[in-house]
Protein: Helix-turn-helix domain-containing protein
Amino acid sequence: MCTMANAWMEGVVVADALDRLFEGLPERLSVDDLTKVLGLADRTVTYRWLRDGIVPAIKLGKSWLILRDDIKEHLRAHYNIPHPTDGDGASPTQQ
Structure:
């Protein structure tokens, strides 16, 4: 059973992990920085993700403006933390 305290602790763990992942990176990331931090195979995948809006960025002419904190918040918002259940194993949205 997932309590509010457990959910809060999981949120802290997520925040700590993301802070460590982005530690030392500049405020504006290059495509190479983003490729490395996301662990993608190569820049081609990164450019596809940027183009398709999978990760947030702004295209200015032929260049991408990739803000470190936008990427962190996007990842934090999409982190798949288990939702609380009602006791029978089904989440409230599955009823």
In short: The radius of gyration is 17 Å. Helices lie at 4-22, 31-38, 43-52, 68-77. The longest helix spans residues 4-22. The chain has four helices and three strands.
